[in-house]
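Record type: ASSEMBLY
Status: queued
Input:
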Amino acid sequence: MIDISQHFEYIAGSYILTMALVGALVILVNRDYHTQEKRLAELEAKGVRRRSEEKK
Amino acid sequence: MSKNASIDPTPQDLGFFSRIAHPGHFLIWSKRWLVPLTIITVALLLFGTYLAFFNSPADYQQGDTVRIMYVHVPNAWLSQFCYAVMVVASIGSLVWRHPLADVSAKAAAPLGATFTAVALATGALWGAPTWGTFWEWDGRMTSTLVMLFIYLGIIALWRTFEDQARAGRIIAVITLVGAINIPIIKFSVEWWNTLHQPASVFRVDGPTMPMSILLPLFVMFFGFSFLFLLLHFISMRAEILRRRVRALERRNAQRLREQQA
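Status: finished
Output:
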């Protein structure tokens, strides 16, 4: 185990801040994807199809 | 494959790159990569963090603050790499009108903005104990801050236009103009007097740091790069679905109007 007594607050702050920002990005990206997936499924369940698919 | 092809047919005479870049096919093949990419990303970031805290010596000049470099450098690299991805996508959008090109450019912008924000914040937290200041208006820091504003401007523009195809062409031009900032960031440490040190990893005469510091740096570098790839894939998939949702909503509204008439 290392001893990070020197400038610990700056080092911990960097990693916590990175985790917070990148973590928020991961959550937002995944939430957006699942929202779009859900909206598409709802429209398809209503029987809405693209014009090209209706002709088949 | 034949089942998928029947869902979203692609002309068989298309080349390899055209087929993998077809939005329908992209949704199919990129889905297979999500789980492996997640495993690789998590493993690399966990291993890199372990190396950063338990297997990296303190630097002879920076002391323990060298550990901040393991998150700062990969994010600084990605802040520029994301923009490079957007530039290539913008060329694809303007020259070939490729359907996946502006999807890729739009998906990369929020990722680039986040990586740039992390690079700036961790750079400031490293600068305070090392330089004695969180911020200095020098070439490298100022041009990186300008990069963040460019990302935020591009994200705002995407939200401004209802017609995403038109937005794609206008934003592609703006993205190409903004690319002038990439060489400014890169060479700012050579052109102007700056607190920021010159390149110390990717140099013609080799890295200027020992393997004990290079190893965690490279592991984190690949960890964050795979994270970008994973999030870019998911964002692109979300954008393709969003455009399909919009098309179906318009179709649904049209159908309702026809029924009422």
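Annotation: Helices of chain A lie at 8-45, 51-54.
Annotation: Chain A touches chain B through 35 residues (CB under 8 Å).
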